[in-house]
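Job type: complex structure
Entries:
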Amino acid sequence: MITPKTLSDRLARVPASPIRKLVPYANEAKKEGVYVYHLNIGDPDIKTPDVMLDVLHSWDKNPIAYSQSHGEPALLDAIDWYYQHCGYSFITPKNIQITTGGSEAISIALFSVANCWDEVIVFEPLYANYNSYAAINQVQFIPVETTIANGFHLPERNDIVKKITKRTKAMLICTPNNPTGTVYTKEEMDMLVAIAKKYGIFLLSDEVYREFVYDGMKHVSLLSYMQEIPEQAIVLDSLSKRYSLCGARVGMIVSLNSDLMHGVLRIAQGKLSSGLVDQLMASKLTKVEDSYIESVQKEYENRRDVLYEGLKTIPGLIIPKPEGAFYTIVKLPVDDAEDFAKYLLTTFRDNNETVMVAPATGFYANPGKGKNEIRIAYVLNIESLKRSIEILKKALVAYKAK
Amino acid sequence: MITPKTLSDRLARVPASPIRKLVPYANEAKKEGVYVYHLNIGDPDIKTPDVMLDVLHSWDKNPIAYSQSHGEPALLDAIDWYYQHCGYSFITPKNIQITTGGSEAISIALFSVANCWDEVIVFEPLYANYNSYAAINQVQFIPVETTIANGFHLPERNDIVKKITKRTKAMLICTPNNPTGTVYTKEEMDMLVAIAKKYGIFLLSDEVYREFVYDGMKHVSLLSYMQEIPEQAIVLDSLSKRYSLCGARVGMIVSLNSDLMHGVLRIAQGKLSSGLVDQLMASKLTKVEDSYIESVQKEYENRRDVLYEGLKTIPGLIIPKPEGAFYTIVKLPVDDAEDFAKYLLTTFRDNNETVMVAPATGFYANPGKGKNEIRIAYVLNIESLKRSIEILKKALVAYKAK
């Protein structure tokens, strides 16, 4: 008798989503008739532009045929227009590869720069799904810690450089940052580019929240350094958040490195194409008024203000002022934030309502870190945000009184 | 000065698509005003069911939000209904994971059963993109040859078994087959299942052409063996061909192995979700009349007849009668089919028209095989097919006269 072969070790290493792992508890609460405010997931409630939805209403293509592997031409032109509009006139469609969401863009970029168990430097806390992409692509993340005390900004240059080894192939950053809300300054971007240059490593920049920057700050994109390190700079982008198109899976890889672009096109050919309907819907971005983005940006800034001012009033809670995106990591006056998050869903009710948050441990590459932290996504309207803060405040009192 | 790091070796190993590699020559011909009949790619011209397109026309969800990682509930229910309809009452939504196209389903299945450089037995000629999924997942394909003389049916059991080593984790089959059009018989499926059982290896069955079987033959699905080898059977499926939804990226992994299903759900969580619009469009499959599939099946059978009878009249050309799907591999009376395919695009014109075919070398895992073979996809209407055959015939005469 031969022992049946087991599933692969690498499948076992793919982590469960820390954002979604408490979903069964939330579902139980909902079954009991409890209203749950979702602060755990970044699925915006902002409307998708009508000009995009009109593509669906007036759809006349039949059959729904494959798009091109490189990307649907109308979308490539639109994305090219967008980067021109942002001032990056050196970008052409051949520097753009359409992917099925920003998540695929990040995963393909990791595959492309690193062989198995090569090292990629990341800054933690980091977007939890990065750990999935590392596991799937068998890349070794080398985390550099950023701290709540420093608003999750980058540490000294030497704290980064000392992590570089012979196996280091890249640094992966996210700015504006999910999960911390931090926006890297020009000085920080200068430092990262200088390190990439000096050590000859790739710099991967996830900029899907590019437009979501507050207090009149300006986002500093890796695109503005792309001509300085043309072979090493890779921008990972998505339309999901910018146009409230999360469920339309449209992302992209942008680089001046032509070997990279040829390689990712071969990967794209294997997958045939991204979705035709989603791409054509997204291609209408050229028709979206600037005022749409401005009003969305303003709405999130208002929510940020409400969240920040509200959470500051909770005794013992530590929150740095979020500078961009629509997330923040806060430190709670508890020992085990996951236990508190479960308590919110299973036990605590205020007027039959509660709140769902994401424990922060999953946002660290180092196991055990962030144990008393949670990530909050502020994608709810202002009234719901205010109510969520009230519930959190009461729940912390009740939890500690237990 | 430090040498800049290069891209990964694994990126370099991802092959270019043999189906699309001659596209630049075709584009040149089109620029000159030449009409090109595409026998190279399986993008059907059959209409998508109206009931699916109506989902677009009556779209009222705003924003376009993430779907669930497991799959949009309406689609999971519809797919479950479909398998019940096919007679597999033991399948429930928890045995189904929605993927972004059948291509992703195959890629994730390879990742899940094999560690790096584990072996997977394949039968060549094989669907060219399988070579991409092997490269991306760093799986070692061990090809077992099937021959045109035998209609690309499976060889003797021992020819398969002798390829099994300690590193063998799975066999990957495609029935009805792309690129050969072969449909495995019950005896062949019995043999494969018996081998899987005896050696404790996984059996992965790509059945995206399940409905496309001709001459009154019946397709034998791995689903009918699933309860016999519940931990080892994995079916890879797609709605692309069945409902002419190629550009809507909707595929699925089906298995009774709960560890596998938990693992692939974790992968899906990392990628957040497949496209919402595509999934909701596809979920209307329960409303598609059986007559739709029957008429599509009949149409392809007619095309198969026209192609087979027509190609048989070409001197020196060898074609086994295709039993299913909408592809066939034919042997040409030339030494180098790729050179002939280029000649068709660059040089040969008949009344300012020509034909594009896919050289078969890319459909072999063993380099160098299939050098005088091409793959033909018969997704053109009958008039165009007849004209394509006429052009091929004339071109072969002219090519040999050179």
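Summary: The longest strand of chain A covers residues 168-174. Chain A touches chain B through 84 residues (CB under 8 Å).
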